[in-house]
Each structure stands twice: as C-alpha cells, then as structure tokens.
Amino acid sequence: MANTISPLFGHNGAPLSESADTARATLAGMLAVRQFEEAVDSLFARGLMHGTMHLSIGQEASAIGACAALEQTDFITSTHRGHGHCIGKGADLTRMMAELLAKQTGYCRGRGGSMHIADASTGNLGANGIVAGGIPIAAGAALAQKMKGTDRVVMCFFGDGATNEGAFHEAVNLAAIWDLPVIFVCENNKYGMSFSTEKSMKVEHIADRAAAYGIPGITVEGNDADAVYAACNDAVLRARAGHGPTLVENITYRWKGHSKSDKNLYRTKEEIEDWKHKDPIVKFENRVIELGVLTREECDAIAADIREKIRASISEATTAPDSDPAELLASVYRAIEGGN
Amino acid sequence: MANTISPLFGHNGAPLSESADTARATLAGMLAVRQFEEAVDSLFARGLMHGTMHLSIGQEASAIGACAALEQTDFITSTHRGHGHCIGKGADLTRMMAELLAKQTGYCRGRGGSMHIADASTGNLGANGIVAGGIPIAAGAALAQKMKGTDRVVMCFFGDGATNEGAFHEAVNLAAIWDLPVIFVCENNKYGMSFSTEKSMKVEHIADRAAAYGIPGITVEGNDADAVYAACNDAVLRARAGHGPTLVENITYRWKGHSKSDKNLYRTKEEIEDWKHKDPIVKFENRVIELGVLTREECDAIAADIREKIRASISEATTAPDSDPAELLASVYRAIEGGN
Amino acid sequence: MTDRIITYSEAIREAIGQAMEADPNVFMLGEDIGIYGGAFGVSGDLYHRFGADRIRDTPISELGIVGAAVGAALVGMKPIVEIQFSDFTAQAMDQIVNQAAKIHFMLGGELSVPMVLRAPIGSGTGAAAQHSQSLEAWFAHVPGLKVVMPATAQDAKGLLLAAIDDPNPVLVLEHKLLYKTSGPVTEAAVRTPIGKSHVARTGKDLVIVATGVMVSRSLEAAAALSEKGIEATVIDVRTLSPLDMEPIEEAVRATGRILLVQEAPKHVGFMAEVSARLAEGKSLYSLEAPIKRLCGMDIPIPYAPQLEKAVVPQIPNIIQAVEDLIREP
Amino acid sequence: MTDRIITYSEAIREAIGQAMEADPNVFMLGEDIGIYGGAFGVSGDLYHRFGADRIRDTPISELGIVGAAVGAALVGMKPIVEIQFSDFTAQAMDQIVNQAAKIHFMLGGELSVPMVLRAPIGSGTGAAAQHSQSLEAWFAHVPGLKVVMPATAQDAKGLLLAAIDDPNPVLVLEHKLLYKTSGPVTEAAVRTPIGKSHVARTGKDLVIVATGVMVSRSLEAAAALSEKGIEATVIDVRTLSPLDMEPIEEAVRATGRILLVQEAPKHVGFMAEVSARLAEGKSLYSLEAPIKRLCGMDIPIPYAPQLEKAVVPQIPNIIQAVEDLIREP
Ligand SMILES: Cc1ncc(C[n+]2csc(CCOP(=O)(O)OP(=O)(O)O)c2C)c(N)n1
Ligand SMILES: Cc1ncc(C[n+]2csc(CCOP(=O)(O)OP(=O)(O)O)c2C)c(N)n1
Ligand SMILES: [Mg+2]
Ligand SMILES: [Mg+2]
Question: Do C143 and D267 touch (CB under 8 A)?
Fold first, then answer.
C-alpha cells in the first residue's frame, strides 16, 4: 500500500491556511519533508546510508506551497535538493526511503539515489544532479503539452545558483518566446553551495532576471506557504491559459549545510539562527491555530501521523531486497518492442 | 610595409564627424571594410576564394565607431562576421586578404580563414566561428587586466543571435559581478541567420537584457558612426575607471545574406532596400560634407585611396606562397622553452 | 514501392516526412530548419508541408534545444533535433551525455528518451577547425547513447527511420560531403537496422573497415585496387554503438589483413576500438600482418584546401595503405 | 628539500601554492574554492594565503569560467580552473575543445592558451551517474589538449607543476578516491614530465598498463599475484596525450602478455588506443596471448554501493584477469 501524504490538487486559490482541509494537507506535506529529511540525516550520521545528501530542511513551504498549485496530472522537474518536491507531488515515502537506502524497491531501483528520484506516476520527471539540468527539460515537457494541446503545466524547481548557468538562460528564453506552460520556481536560499547571491549576481532579486525574457517575475516570502501558493497559483493559471511562463522566486534558507561535507564557514551561526526563527512550519502552524482553523492538538496529531509514516517508510525500506547487479547490463537501453 | 588604415586612438570624445582628422579616419575605416568585403565577395563569386564568408556590408559604422573609442593597447574579441572589427583595430589588409586566400602570409598562415583572424599586435584576440564563443574569452581577458592592474579594456563584439547562448549569460554575469573592464557590443542586425529577433526573444531590445546583470544597457542607432562612438566611448570610460561592463546594442542591418548559401527567404526585398537607404557610409559622408568638415572631393579621394589599398592587398596576397602543409604537425602545440 | 536515385539530403528529408506523417508525435527542432530550409538544406520544404509548429525554428541555444527535446521525449514526443554542425554538440554535451544518455538507467527504467539528434560531421568544405570535426568517438564512448553514421543515401533514410523508432537517444552523424551525393533509395519507409555492420564489397585479399565518407572513398580505392589485382572486402560500420564485430571478424579470418579507415584524428578514435576488439579475440591469430589504421592526423582541421585535404585520408592514401599492408611479411 | 608523507590533496595544494608564489600570473578560478576550500577540500587554506583575488570563487557557470580562463591565458595569465566534478566539463566543452584546444593552431601560432584545468574523476563515492564519470578518452581524442592522470601524491604535485609550466592547455584528471591517499612527496617543486609513461613495478610474466586509481589497484593485485608466483610489470600511463608507448612496447617484448586496466567504460575508451598501437606495430609479434582489456562496464555508474563496485574493476577482478591471461595458450 502506498505510503504517501495526500497532496492538494485542484484547490481553488484561497489561502491554504483558510480551511481545515487545505491547512491539514499543507502542514502534513511540510512535516513529511521535515521528518523525512531528519530521518535521513540521522540514518546518514549513523552510517546506515551512503553517498551524499542535500537536505531542504527550512525550505518546506516552498516545495509544498508551490506543488499545492498543481493538478495531479501536471509535471515537475526537480533538483539535487528535491525531497520536498517529490513529496509535494505525492511520492511514496517508502519508495523514496528505499531509494536512498539503495534498495531494489526504490524509485530508481537503487541506481540513482537521492539526486535522481523520479516518479512517472505522479508526474515527477526527476530530480537532477546537474545544477540547472532540469530547466531545459521542463521547457521541453511544456512544449510537448502545448503541441499536444493538453492543459497540463510543468513546474520547474531550481536554486538561486542555477540561474547563473547558461542552461537557465537558454531554457527560460525558449519558454518565453513560445509561451510555454511552465512555472519557473527558484528557491533562493541565498547560497549556491558557499557562494552567496550577493556575490554571484549584481541584481537584488532573481526575479529581476525575468526582465531579460519579457516574462513576469515575482519575489515571494518563501517561508510562507500561503504566499508561495498564491504566487504559484497565479503563475499556474497564466500558464494553463496559454499566457506563458512566470519566474517565481521563493526567498528561503537551508538550515543544514549544502551537503554532508559542508563546514558552514561561509555564513554565520547568527544568520542560521535568525532563519530558524522563520521556520515555515511553525509559522504556518501558528497561523492556522490563530485563525482557529486547526487546534494545537490537531496539529500535533498530524505530526504524529507523519512520524508514523516516516517510521513505516524506514522499516519497510530497510527490509526490502538490495538492488540487483544482475539486471544492470540489460537496463542501459530500453528494449525495442518486437526487437530490432 | 603594412597595408592598414590608421585607426583613431586616443580620441577625446567629440563626435567623429566634427573634425577633419577624425572624419577622415572614420570614413576611411568604413570604406575599407566595405571595399574589402566587396572585393572578397567578388573573389568568391569568381571561384578564387573557398570556404564560406560572412560579410558585414551595411554594418560598418558599428565596427568602426566602436573601435574608435579604444586605445591601441586595448583588446577586442570578434565574430564570424569580423572583418570590420579587425580593420577597425588596425589589421593589415594584405595579411587579412592573404588569410582568406589561404596563404602562408595570412594572419593564421591559412589555417583559420575568415572566421579565425586574430592579430596579437593590434590586440585582436580573434574572430570566432562559434556564436558567442568570444564572450567568455573577453571577460577573461578583462579579468586579467583587472588583476594585473592595467587600464586596458576589452571590447567584445557579438550578434543579436549570440545573446541567446548560455555563454553570453554566464560571461556577462561574471563581468558584472567582478566589475570587469569590458564593453559588450551587440551588433543587432535583426537576424541570427534566418531567425529574427522578434521571434528569438520577447524583449524589444537586446539592451533590456542588461537588467538581468545589474549593468547599464543602451540601444544605439548603429548605422550612425557618431552615435556608436559616443555610446562606446562612455562605456570605455566607465570600464577604464573600474566601474564595470556596459552592454551597447547597435541597431544595424546586413545587406548580404548570412553566408554564401543564403537565399534570403526569411526577409523581404523591401526590408533590404529600406536599410540600404540607411547606408552608414553615405550617412556619415553627407553629414561631414554638410558640416563643412570635408568636401565631396576629399571624400572621393579617401575612397580612391582605400581602393588602392584593397587592390594592393589582393595583388600582394595573390602572389604570396600557399600555406605550408609541412609545418602542420609541429604547430598543434606551442613548444616548451628549453624542452620538456 | 520502388527505388529512385535521390540525394542523401533528399533521403533524410523523405525519412523525416514519412515519420511525421505516420506519427503526430514526431517533430523537428533546430536552428534555421524552417523557412531557411536548414544550414545544409536538409529540412528543405518540410516547413511548408508541416508548418512552423512541427518544423520548429529555434534561437541559437544548443543546450536549451537539446534539453527541450529531452523533456519533450520524456513525456511522449519524438523530437528530432538538428544541430547545425556537430561541433556545436559541445554546447549541448550536458543534455546529451549527463541527461539523455543516463535517464533511462539512472531513474530506474520507467522513463526513457526517444530522441534523435542529427548533426553534420566532417571536413572538406573549407570551414576550418570549429566547423569540421568528426566527434563520433565521444558519443560512442557514452553508455546509453546509440550512434549511427550513414554512408549512403539509402542508409541515411533507413538509419534515421530506425533511430526515430528507437526508444533510446540516437545520434545520427551525417557527413557534409555526402549530402549532395546520390544513390538508389526505396520509396517505402524501410528501416536499416541499428547495430549491424554492413559488408559493402567482398574481396579475398584484405578487409577495409570504414565509417562515414570513408566508406565511399574505400569503395573507390577498392575499385582501383581491383584493377591492380587486389581484391578488398569493404565493411561499412554504420552503427558505432552498439558495435557489430561479427562481419569484421569473419572477414579478418578470411583475409588475414585489415585496414581501418576513419576521418577523425587517430588518437583514441573509434577505430582504436575495432582494433582492440580484434586484438583481444581469436581473430588475432588469423592476422597475417599488423592491424593498420589510416586516420585523420592529430591536428585541428585547417582552412586552406590543400592543408584540409592533407590531414584526412583521401583515396590515394587508402590505395597506398592497402598496398603497404599487402606487402607486409 | 626532502620527502614527506602527505596526501594527494595536500600535494596538489602544495604545487599550487609553490606555483603561485613563484609566478604572480598564476591564479585559481572555480566554484567554492575560496573559504569553502573546494568541494573535495583541495584548495583548503590557499584562500587565506593568497586572498580572494587569486583564489577566485565563481558563480555556477562552468562554460563562463573556462572561457574566462581561456581569455586570461591569451593575455599572459596562467589560470588554474577547478571543475567541481569532471562530469561538468560537459558544460564547458565548447571552451575546452573548440576554443582552448584549437586557438594556438587555428589562429596561426602567435597566441596560446597556457591554461590548466583540474577535475576530479571516477566512481566510488556513491554519487551516481552524473558525478562519477571518467571522461579522459574525450579529451585525449582532441588535438591541442594535453591530458594527464596522476596516480600518486608525488605525481599529483609533479604533473600539476609541469602542467602549469606548459604553454598549452592541460587537463589534469584527479581521481576522487586518491585525494585522501598518502605517499612520499618532495618538498621542492619537482616536475613530473608530461609525455612519459612510468614503470611502477617490474616483473617478468606480464605487463599491466593502468591509469588513475587503477594504478594502485594494479600494484596491489601485482603484490598478491607475486605471492602466487606471478610477477607483473605495472606501467602507469600518467600522460594520455601525448602518449608514450615506449616502455609499454618494451615490456610487451619482454613478457609477451598484456592487460590494460581502466575505470572508464570499455567501448571506445582510452585503453583501446593502447591496444591498437600495439596491434599496429612490431610488438604484435611478441604477443603470446591476445591483448586483454579490463575496463568499466558500458553502463552509467549506479548509486548502490554493491552496484557501483560491480561495474568497475576491483583488485580481485585484476587478479582474476591476470590469472586468465597467464593461462592463455
Ligand atoms: C553543473 C553543475 N555545477 C556544479 C555542481 C555542484 N553543485 C551541486 S549543488 C551546487 C549548488 C547549487 O546551488 P543552488 O542552485 O542555489 O541550489 P541549492 O543547493 O542552494 O538548493 C553546486 C555548485 C553541479 N551539481 N552541477
Ligand atoms: C554555437 C553555434 N551555433 C550555431 C552556429 C551557426 N551560426 C553561425 S553564425 C549564426 C548566426 C549568428 O547570428 P548573430 O549572432 O545575430 O550574428 P550575425 O550573423 O547576425 O552577425 C549561426 C546560427 C555557430 N557558428 N555556433
Ligand atoms: Mg541556493
Ligand atoms: Mg544577427
């Protein structure tokens, strides 16, 4: 049985914090990302997981708020820091965990790991180990929608650092000139690895870069799930109506190091602490409680439920078979139907 | 003896049409480009030249007006459509012609041809067969000037089409964040091969793209040598003063096809005719005569002088030895002094 | 349907036209492929037949274009990308190698990238070092890509049709000098199988293995050698990855002598692989002379016509190499 | 000055430090090489010693960075570019191949590009297909580039110093698994000559030729084989372009058997060239067994540790291959 949070689909544009159902789903989504990654962090620390890992803890409102603007049939492309996007689009937590644990039951059968989770069934065209690698791919998937005449859109996630890659430039321009149904969601967490946006660009906002392509650009408080949802929902509506792409910049922050080898020398403890006070989950929880949409107890119950799901994902994944070397050679190419 | 026009160096910022010396040099430069290319066109048509050829006829004010803002010791990087830039920076017409004729005495010893003319002695770091290929190189040459503490600048030429390459984006951003002494001169002749700027981008002006990098961008009437010079001179002063790059967009037009295989199906005869009426040479000539800076006779004398130089370039180049296959293998790597 | 003599370019265009008629998901993407008809005139009138939507002109953005094709392919389209000169694959290597080639495997097998990338290779047009490379070895070295090099008009059509059918990314490397050459081509949409080497000529004295434009040069050389009493088998590799060694090994067993001919620089080029495969198998013992490679010199392609000719194998060089090989102890 | 035991990373850092002290034109350019100290910690404290100007952090723009290095080199600087993973050379191929490699030749010989490009290669860190490739064959195939692969800490220093001296673009491909390995390294700025293969061990029964991390694996295998009475010569190719075949051919003449070991996928990989060179020369006649290649499988590198190990040669595979080779008729 699938072990997923149930993402919001087809929501009407009202703030996520306004109704119990949407508040519940949003909170569950953000908590799932947080707890999934905390679990992964600890498995890694205990030597039970290998490779490297990029955690999005602190950025949950961006992934969950953005995905809430999508329909089930829409697509996403994601990044090396992509667990949130997968979960936001409805991925099975056990299959994600199994992938990270290099199991045959993982999304990539243990061949891809954290940086390559894809899930055709939820429209997730893949995380990507290449910075900006998913941006042209998103443009292409959107071109296909336009050519086929569907009303599906593609949401393309990437970081601030990715906007310095040529791939960003070429792909956003293609999407602009062809009015493609794609939403470029930049998660500006202030650093590309160690290099701050203050140093890597001379403009203040990533959204300013939209001007070079003649498309709208908007800067959003990325730790506010309502704000992210509102901006992305507008962009999705634009895209679905055939009016082309939007560049949405979610200002956020990653609490953890870039990856496992990061000593955080390029930023101060104070900066990290400051941002921890802007915790997107706490912010959203407080709001819904204040608004009387959910009670503290209800919120705690959601958290407990997610904890159960994450625990289940670990125990199920751990006992799954390791990925199988025997099938490798036959897996490089897709077989031709009927033979060649 | 060198067969060059004498480019203007160290000019004081006044309009080129204002004094007899600068007017003469400007006119000579533009005529040299025009006549060089007309000669090349005819040699090609008569089967005396091989390969392919990209002519800048109609765009002469851009190359000559821009180079007039440079000092002898400054650098340029150029493009596949680069004869004007070479000449503007002071290249020897005979060595250029020899290169196109695949001679040992050519700038590249016949190894490069039209698309690869470089001239270390005049600071020409090379034309380039790769669209946008020279843009990162220009940024790097400018970085070197900054690191060495010279006051030399680099002028980087490229077309409108080149601004859709990732190389443009990455390099302009590097120059912007490091305040490099480089002037990005986009020769917007409305087409990248057959694809018009109206189709290839959603912004009206290439200069609008400067906004993505936090640098000034300016759109200039590119067939007016005075206007080009004024904008480039400002940009050079900024760069030399350590205030970083500028994006200068010269609006111009190529009269000839993109290259030898172009059937001009993507544009109308009327459009071409319209632009021929905006001939940058005629415009400049009329202005200086009107201003009383030069007489018609003086202008004609300049043209006749250039004709002589071009004729000389052809006859000298034609009799030069063909490029030498024997030296090829030893030419791939620069030898290490004292051996390795 | 019957055979006609048409050019290599026409054969490619015909293949694209037939594939586009048969499958609405097939479309073309590239620089100046629309009203201009393609830098080498290959797409020609397809724009007028299929419209700007499916014969899609793009800005000068190779990385973006190839990436867009990858994305479109992932969701069920069948894009054919034209790269104006194969040299500009350098711009798009990330999408070709790190994305297209690896996605099917790396993402666990559910997704795949049925994309075709066409690119003209080779020297001989006076376009100098940045417009004349033969980079097939790069792509053949990348698991997940298939690489074909049609040497005839028929195969230009047949391999392209097979590439379009293939659910994997396939690079079709077309030699510029072949575009205007002609040959008989079936009207029907007949596929040339990917992954099969082709024996283009049979002779008892030695085997010449060649790719791209070197196939016709080798055949011409073989004809000239025949008049001197030397009979060569000529094998057109056609698919560089996956490579079919079977007919090559058979020919070596039959003749004992082998000449490998490619235009690309010799060092770490494709023919090194053919040589290495022979040297590590039983065929080694059938050799009566060392394996000989005749390749491009390890030099960027120069502009001057005499230099350009001097750095890659020409027919007289092939004849000479064969005569040397036959004389080996 | 004397030898000390330091790591491969430290040796690289020491080379850069010494070169930067000796020549103000030498500087570094790359992502996170400054205060972060480099993705693999190689630049370490150089930022504190030389400052942000000369240990220059860049945005994530590989094409722009390499191009900037080309431009700086053209006007007299000596840039050392660090590419975080060699896989990202894909982003910069145009500047590496179409510009840096060709400029000296194509522009007539006056200009040159004294640039060094350092990039970590190889698998073994669980980073999967886009962060684990060994792409040396691509670069070795490009005339105008030099390609070295240091296998020891001493050579990591010596080859890098030689690369910095060299007036041509040199790629230094460093294996990730070697960074933390140690060995004796001279304190003085001693160069390892580019263009010389190195005999790392001598034995009478066969020769193993290897690159990168396969050199130490081959040496370990040779030690184990020695206990079984099999004595192997081990040759570290060190420079892939230009390639020095001399000691390899000599060893083949002496032993009659050869095993070629590389991590990269086999098909059209570097070792194919070594094999082809042997098969086209007189050494062919010294062979008592077919030339054997032991290479990475033709598969993208997978994430799972057991899969990752399974697709590239490990010490037991080398031992097995040698035993098979010795048993050949
Ligand atoms: C083309 C490429 N260059 C460099 C890297 C190494 N790298 C991985 S993530 C990263 C930083 C990315 O920054 P950003 O886009 O802001 O995303 P974030 O990590 O902050 O989420 C870098 C440099 C890479 N994976 N791909
Ligand atoms: C990377 C690359 N892509 C494509 C080409 C083929 N090509 C040569 S010039 C050209 C058009 C360039 O347009 P633009 O930059 O506007 O310069 P213009 O020719 O108009 O001067 C094209 C597509 C190339 N040389 N390099
Ligand atoms: Mg970031
Ligand atoms: Mg143009």
Answer: yes
